[in-house]
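hey all, quick one before standup. I had two proteins in the batch that finished overnight and I want to keep them in one place so we stop losing track of which output belongs to which input. First protein below, input sequence then structure tokens straight from the run.
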Amino acid sequence: YNGGNIIGRNDKGTLRGNGNIYAVSGGAYIGGAVGVNAGGTLTNIVVDAPSAFNNTTFAKEYVGGVVGYMSGGTLSGVISFKGNMVGTNYVGGIVGRYVSSSALTLENLTQTGNITSTGNYVGGFFGEINTNATVTLNNLTNTGNITGVNHVGGIAGQITCVLSTNGLVNGTTL
């Protein structure tokens, strides 16, 4: 649990990417960079799962191309996931599940991976967003294929929040 390619659980730290991060696998709370982000700052993270790693992140639930489960903190700069991902529930190209009482603003996200879920809550960027605050999404591009059972979407599998969007490009096949 809490499996991340770089950090298992990030409560306060700052992670700045300078290169590519590769594939990771595990049971739950799995992220390409961070398994659980509970207050840390992630900036300029590119997760690129090359063919040498079979292009896949395997896990059961709370699976994200960058963060498996996010309950606070920030994502900023260039955040992207390239590759293929397989999971069960709460599977997202960037974040598997976002649950917080804080507002969230995300800009310039790119997701080009294929996401396959055998369960529920699967989306191009988020498996689920669940907050009573405003979530603002600006300049997001999703061109991967997304497959799941219930609650499947190009942006998110399920959204429970006030959502503000600008510049969304969704070329996804659902």
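OK second protein, same deal, sequence then tokens:
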Amino acid sequence: RHAVRSNRRRIAAVEGCHGRVNVRRTKEGLVSILVINAGSSSVKFGLFRLDSLEPVARGLLDWAGETRRATVKLTPEQGEPICKQLDVPDYRAGVVAALEMLRESKLVSGESAIRVVGHRLIHGSEKIRRPVRIDAAMKEVIARYAHLAPLHIPAGLEAIAATESALPGVLQVG
């Protein structure tokens, strides 16, 4: 329940960060928001309808103590869970592979279906008191505080970079 409230705040903050996000259907299907919570050994993510905030799917990318092998579990709100073992060289590649799995699942149709990505970040900075648009300058601010949460901030920045790679041009907030 707390996660849903937190996601709703993050989603609502998008308007304050970058104006309104277009929530109408595209030719490919309904637009969505992706929420990512990157930790030191796992990445939790959720896909929500942008117009109603109804959950579409949730996922977990888990390294379980391994550095080059991870498990992705994608659980649609309707349907059977999908699990896959990944051989990945690093954290960023694992996140990209999980996002690719999400795309292949047909829960996301077309490149334009995800309109915004919300990241849960631990940063500790007085400069970041509410959700903000993540751009190059904001990533530098976040990186300056890595010493405050050395297991989480680098992972969050890797997830941001992976998302930028997998979903170029999609608005990211954190």
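Flagging for whoever picks this up: The first helix runs from residue 2 to 18. Residues 1-5, 10-28 have pLDDT under 50 and may be disordered.
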